[in-house]
Amino acid sequence: MTKVPAGGPERPGPGDGAALDNIAVLNNSAVPDDSAVLDRSCLTDLADQLASPEAAAQFAAVFVEMLPERVQAIEEPLADIRVQAARTAALSLGSSAAMIGAQQLVRDAGLINQHLKTGSLDAAREVAARLSADAAAVAAAIEDLLAGQ
């Protein structure tokens, strides 16, 4: 199973104009469409809500940094049949993923929660089996965005 890199991207600092510019032009039609993985308009909305593209870029960087632990917080309880812990972790991942537009992670987390809610542990484990790969794709998309690609 592919794991999300533990280090994540470097956090954009106050002088990191590239990351700020990238957040500011997210809705530009010249930006490649990777909306199946990352809905960039959510980051634009977050930047607007925070009145700070820098804060939105920082949130995205921290999200990527925390992804390995969030995925592990779902996988481990599923292996140990700790349903409530897995549901709590899935809800947490889904909420923060929605804030930055990580659509596939929102779907994965929602499915895991729904399967656990209905007692379908095996179905939840099947979704969780692809969670690391989906998280890696989201991390790569965010890293590319923050790097200006």
Automatic annotation (TrEMBL):
Every HPt domain range: 52-149
A Gene Ontology BP annotation from the UniProt entry: phosphorelay signal transduction system
Identification of the protein by name: Hpt domain-containing protein
Origin species: Pseudarthrobacter equi
Organismal lineage: Bacteria, Bacillati, Actinomycetota, Actinomycetes, Micrococcales
